[in-house]
Amino acid sequence: MKDKKIIIESMINVLDYEVNNKKSLTKEWINYRIGLFMNYTLKSLKLQTNQNYIVYVKYTDNTEDLIQEALSKYDKLPANIEFIRNSKYASKLKQDIVGFKKLYLIRLDSDDMYHKSYIQQMYDYVPHKNTKILVNQSGYIYDSIQKRLAKYFYIAPPFYTQIYNTNKFLKGERHWLRIGHKWIVKQPHEIVGVNNFILHAHSNNTRTVFDEKFKKGIIKNKSEVEKILREFIGKG
Questions:
Q1: What are phi and psi of 232, to 5 degrees?
Q2: For FRET with 217, which of 26, 66, 196, 235 sits at 20 to 30 Å CA-CA?
């Protein structure tokens, strides 16, 4: 039996706060968000130094035609990255983890980015026996409209990896999940790495806004900003 299976779970328009916003079901919104995925998130994924992982980008079932139409405008996705109907995701995930001792389930919004070393970090990291969550608390926030990058720290951010015993997961075990992310630090967890993520602020965010509180952390050195972005999305 192999040691661990690493799967990145992402989504386009299946979160409650997005589904309740009818814009997330429209052609215009979907085209825009898939454009962000292709120009930022996908580049981050393709840049990973270890490509031994699977990505599932979930979408609301009744937006199938709009999703496929939007995807048809871009090059074919790598074999390990798939857009999938929300209703099919759970069964597909279970198929993928058979034969592995551990499941590492990484959360990533479809407009955000991980450092190019993150997958390798997950393979190398040896957590304590009872640890359920690996949490990334420090990273960056990027305003792609005004091209501003600032340092970012949050106790319970949307950048974390859940660890499961595969057999228990297949039998239905799930960590204690709640709306929002504060729950992740209320369970056995460890803080991993530094500056492992970029939270993306743009003109059509659901929640993330580059507001006044980030201005004091803005990185003003242009060369440093370019160097950081290269480590997340390459040359652009």
A1: -110, -35
A2: 235
Q: What is the pLDDT of residues 173-198, one digit of tens each?
A: 999 776 668 889 999 999 998 899 99
What DSSP state is assigned to residue 205? -
Between residues 217 and 5, the one the model is more confident about: 5
Helix, strand, coil fractions of the chain, as percent rounded to 5:
35, 25, 40
Q: Is the predicted pLDDT of residue 95 greater than 90, yes or no?
A: yes
Helices (H), the chain: 16-19, 27-36, 42-46, 64-71, 86-97, 118-124, 166-170, 222-233
Total domains in the fold of the chain: 1
- What are the residues facing 83 on neighbouring strands? 57
Q: What is the CATH number of the domain that holds 107?
A: 3.90.550
Report how far residue 83's alpha carbon sits from residue 60's, in angstroms, rounded to the nearest whole number: 11
Give the model's pLDDT for residue 182: 85
* Candidate from 21-30, 79-88, 111-120, 167-176 with smallest mean pLDDT: 21-30
Supply the range of the domain harboring residue 106. Answer: 2-233
Question: Cβ neighbours of residue 84 under 8 Å, at least 6 residues apart?
Answer: 56, 57, 58, 59, 92
Q: What is the pTM of this model?
A: 0.92
Q: How far apart are CA 98 and CA 93, in angstroms?
A: 9
Please say whether the beta carbons of 6 and 102 come within 8 A: no
147 residue type, one letter: K
